[in-house]
Amino acid sequence: MIKIVFMLALMSMVLPVNAEIYKCKTNDRVMYQSTPCTQGASDEVDIYIPSVPDNSFEPGDIPDDDYKEERRQRWAEEQKRLNEKSKAIREERLRQERFKKMIWHHEVAIGMTKKQAERSWGKPCDINRSVYASGVHEQWVYCTGKYDRQYLYFEDDELTGMN
Length: 163
Fold this sequence. Notes:
Elements: H1 2-12, E1 21-26, E2 29-33, E3 42-45, H2 65-104, H3 114-121, E4 126-132, E5 135-143, E6 149-155, E7 158-162
Antiparallel strand pairs: 1-2, 1-3, 4-5, 5-6, 6-7
Helix pairs in contact: 2-3
C-alpha cells in the first residue's frame, strides 16, 4: 500500500523540463536533435512555451453561475424537444398500426394515404382530380351498387373526407 501511495505521489509531481534543441545543416538537409552537431555549424533553437496567466480557470472550473443556468436551460429545452419528437414518432407508429388493422377489415379513416385507401377498398370506379395553387384535390368514386356511390376526398396524398 505504501508503494502505491509513493508511486502516485511521484507521478503527480510536476518538474520543469530543460531541453536544448540544435539545428544542424548537412548536405542541404536540416535536422533537429538534442545534441550539438558533429560536423558543420550548429545553431541552438529557442523554444517558446507560453505561460498560463494567473487568472485562468482550471479545466473543471466554471466562471459564474449564469453560465451554469444557461447550460441547464439549454439542456432542459433539448430534452423537451427530444421528448416531443419521440412522442410524435410513437403516435405515428400507433396510427400506422391502427391503419393496418383497418385495411385488414376493409375500412378507411381520415389521414390514410391513397395507397392505404386503395389497399383497403380497391381501385375506385372514377377519379375526379382538380389542381389548384394550394395543391391537388381528388374525389375517388366507388360504385357499391347500380346507383349507390361512396366517395373519398384527398388533398395531395392524404384522405381528408369521405361520404
